[in-house]
Amino acid sequence: MSTTTNPSPHLTANALFGLAGGFKHGFKAVVTGGGSGIGLMATQALAQNGATVYITGRRKEKLEKVAELYSPKEGVGKIIPLQLDVTDKDAVLKVAEQVKKREGESGIHLLINNAGVACEKDTTSFSGKNVDFTDAEKLAEFLWKADPEAWEQTYRTNVTAQYFVSIAFLPLLSAGTKSTSGYCASIINTTSTSGIMKGSSGGQFAYSTSKSAFNHLTQMLATTFMELDAKVRVNAIAPAVFPSEMTAGKSGADQKTAREEMGERGKSYPAGRPGREEDVAAAVLYLAGPGGVFVNGQVVRLDGGNLLKQPTVMF
């Protein structure tokens, strides 16, 4: 006599990664730097899977264009633009209050700290330069040209701002945990493999060390927020080179950067290609969805295996 086991509905893809169902007032997210690059990739993934996504950035027209182009024409997902400079502490609090007025006691379920810079004033990049690493005086002369303002600007945007944005939205995230049974709201920080590599990532000392600090901030916030009654998880994704304004210097009319501009990079990876928007989408849906509630304080490397081949430095 044979018996059959009933399938477990909580193990389906929709139950693990879906955002459209199971949330009483819908899934609500905030993405900083959502107008292009990785922020836009995350925004699309969330909105297309039923989330209401508040995107922020300094350029209002860019945000509005994203909302126009990528708000789902069918379903419950939508994109709402809110202008914000994350380095302005008072402005951050005002935007958090705007979101609270819209969402009330139900709060939000996800904050993606994606805004960041690779400061143009950071002149210590080795890329394309003939730097003599064998002569201490020549190397010191080159590195001494670094602008202290570049360090300050980089850390102000990539670390300090992320701290204050996280704190400003913490009550809303905790409220999101309270309002959703069996779920824990979370923060996803966009760091970088440059903050993990043992070397200087081509000499970008300010950028690389800021991303390393951001990785550590992720773990500090995760540890701290575990003490809350209504807890909030904090994780990070650390991408290698993905198509974005930061890596390619520009974006097209669709706010995206063509993958062809990334050249030969990535052909040695298991996927045989550079990173794409679907790779970011999969990581975001995993960490943010119901199936990710057991993940906390982790840095997920989206590098295609790059650090396995180049753990020290990448020129």
UniProtKB/TrEMBL annotation:
MF annotations from Gene Ontology? oxidoreductase activity
List UniProt keywords, sorted A-Z: NADP, Oxidoreductase
The record's annotation in SUPFAM superfamilies points to: NAD(P)-binding Rossmann-fold domains
Disordered: annotated span? 248-275
Q: What spans are recorded as compositionally biased (Basic and acidic residues)?
A: 256-267
Family note: Belongs to the short-chain dehydrogenases/reductases (SDR) family.
**What is this protein's record name?**
NAD(P)-binding protein
The upper taxonomy is: Eukaryota, Fungi, Dikarya, Ascomycota, Pezizomycotina
